[in-house]
Every structure is written in C-alpha cells, then in structure tokens.
C-alpha cells in the first residue's frame, strides 16, 4: 500500500492488496479499474500549473552541483576498465551515484566502498516492455549486488493504450520489492508520450510511492527537454500538495545533457538529478565558469571561454581534474 508521504491526492487512489506471482514474488494489485484511474488522472491534469520561473540551481562552482549528477555508463559494449574509470571519477568529483546495468552493479559497489557515492541500476532497460517478473528479478539482483537506487523503465506502450491498472500493479509491486530507503525512479521516455500521458505516468508513480520521475533512457527519441521537465516538476508539486518539499517526488532529467549550460537549463526547469555520461566535463565547466565570473543562465553564458577539449571516458584518468 502506498505510504502517506506523497499526500492525500496520490494515496486516495492507491488502495491495493498483496498477492503472489507464479514465481513466488510478492505482487501488489490495485482495486481500481482503468476507468477509475482515468477519472483520477483527468482531475490531476485539470489542476496542473506549469511555472515559467526558474527553479533554484546549485552554485555551479561548488560541490552541490556534483551531487545532482548520476554518472552514467549504459553502453552494451562497455568494458570492465571503463567502470573502474567511472567509479574513480565519481569518487573524486563527489557525484550522487554511478548509474549502470545490472551486471555491473557488484563491480561498482566494490569500487565505491568507503565513499559516499551510491550505485543506481537501470531495470527493464531500455524498452520497458519486459514483464513484471523479469523486472522484479532484475530489481532483486541489483539490490543484492549493492544498488541503492533503481531507475525503472515505464511500460509506456501500456500507458499509450490506457492500461492504467496494469501499470500501477507493476509499480506498486516493485515498490514492495524495494522498500525505502531504496530510491525508485520511473523512466517515462517522454519522447514517446503526449503531455497528458506524461501527467498520467507521474500520477501513478506518485500513487505507487516512487521517489523520482525521469525523462528518458537516452536510447529512443529526444532526451531531456525543458518543456517536459517543467511539466513533470508541476506534476510533482500538484501530487505532493500538503507534503513537505523534501519529501515530494522529484524529477530527474536524462538524455543529451552534455554541457554546463544543459545542466543549468534542466535544473532551472525543475530537475533535482541529472543523468549524464558527461559529468566530469560538466563539473569542470562549472568550476571554470565560476572562476571566470561570467555566471550562467538557461540561454547560455555569453563570454564563457571553454578550456581544453572534451575528455572521452576511455582516456581520462580520475586524477585529471
């Protein structure tokens, strides 16, 4: 059953009961029909107000910027040494997490022992159409291997065909399999969704007590866009009405975030986390921006002089920066 931490709007629709899958896993099912979910989602959508004002952004020259970054490596052809590099960079820069596929979680957890950097693992990646048992097994494997956060791909094909009860059952079951303090992020793949579908996904994520909604996998269509991040941030505010800000569901922007300008644009649009393989470059640019005293805005920093060339993951060492 969803916790009251998301507020009455989300939990008023979250009546659920526990059953068991054929594989013996605990499964949570909703008593609401697709039609009842549709009515609730329509009520949420009516009250969404998207702000055009900038949200607060960490000091680009300070450590708080690095703490917004999930340092990401999801390429299928990636080699073990690249994950050593990834973890070393995360340690030195103070990133929030490294974000990897399930088979690399244990290695990264070992590499990061003694640091404050967590391991995030993608689940159902990248199509999201794996069945619930597969996702539950991946989640269980990742948690046993040392993951503290799970980035779960929404079955957006079901969302497109209004199978809301099925989606909620999957999300609530995965929340049951991975209780707090594990952080759960739902990857929406906004490139495939209409604004109304994005709102629906946020509503069900909040009802299932997820901690974040995330824009994209980075593998299909466009990545993070300001318009999508602002809409998702507005949903989080609406669904978290009456709940302290620090306990509301939040937004992770992911896909195509490569520069400090990209990072600031997403943070000022309402993101609290950034998924990127360019974290080292972004933090480096942030420090240089602060040193030059140019400041940054979503419209980019005129007069900002980039120093050096963009590092590639295979060649950069954790002692470089």
Automatic annotation (TrEMBL):
Keywords: Cytoplasm, Lyase, Schiff base. Belongs to the DeoC/FbaB aldolase family. DeoC type 1 subfamily. SUPFAM superfamilies: Aldolase (SSF51569). It comes from the Eukaryota. This is deoxyribose-phosphate aldolase. SMART domains: DeoC. One of its GO terms (biological process) is carbohydrate catabolic process. CDD domains: DeoC (cd00959). HAMAP family: DeoC_type1 (MF_00114). It catalyses: 2-deoxy-D-ribose 5-phosphate = D-glyceraldehyde 3-phosphate + acetaldehyde. Coiled coil: none annotated. GO terms for molecular function: deoxyribose-phosphate aldolase activity. GO terms for cellular component: cytoplasm. The keyword Cytoplasm applies. Its EC number is 4.1.2.4.
């Amino acid at each position: 059953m969803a916790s009251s931490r998301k507020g009455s709007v989300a939990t008023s629709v979250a009546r659920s009961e526990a059953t068991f899958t054929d594989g013996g896993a605990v499964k949570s099912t909703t008593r609401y029909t697709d039609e009842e979910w549709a009515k609730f989602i329509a009520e949420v959508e009516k009250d969404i107000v998207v702000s055009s004002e900038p949200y607060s952004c960490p000091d680009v020259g300070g450590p708080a910027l690095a703490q917004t970054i999930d340092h990401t490596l999801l390429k299928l052809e990636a080699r073990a040494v690249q994950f050593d590099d990834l973890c070393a960079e995360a340690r030195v820069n103070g990133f929030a997490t490294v974000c990897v596929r399930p088979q690399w979680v244990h290695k990264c957890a070992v590499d990061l022992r003694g640091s404050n950097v967590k391991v995030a693992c993608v689940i159902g990646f990248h199509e999201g159409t794996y069945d619930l048992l597969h996702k539950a097994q991946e989640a269980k494997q990742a948690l046993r291997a040392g993951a503290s956060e799970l980035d779960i791909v929404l079955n957006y094909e079901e969302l497109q065909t209004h199978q809301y009860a099925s989606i909620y059952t999957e999300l609530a079951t995965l929340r049951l399999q991975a209780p707090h303090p594990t952080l759960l992020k739902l990857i929406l793949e906004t490139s495939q969704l209409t604004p109304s579908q994005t709102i629906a996904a946020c509503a069900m994520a909040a009802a299932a007590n997820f901690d974040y909604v995330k824009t994209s996998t980075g593998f299909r269509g466009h990545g993070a866009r300001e318009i999508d991040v602002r809409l998702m941030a507005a949903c989080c505010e609406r669904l978290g009405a009456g709940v302290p800000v620090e306990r509301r569901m939040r937004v992770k922007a992911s896909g195509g975030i490569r520069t400090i300008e990209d990072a600031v644009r997403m943070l000022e649009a309402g993101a609290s986390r950034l998924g990127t393989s360019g974290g080292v470059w972004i933090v480096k640019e942030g420090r240089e921006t602060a040193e030059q005293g140019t400041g940054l805005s979503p419209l980019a920093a005129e007069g900002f002089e980039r120093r050096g060339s963009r590092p590639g993951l295979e060649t950069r060492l954790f002692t470089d920066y």
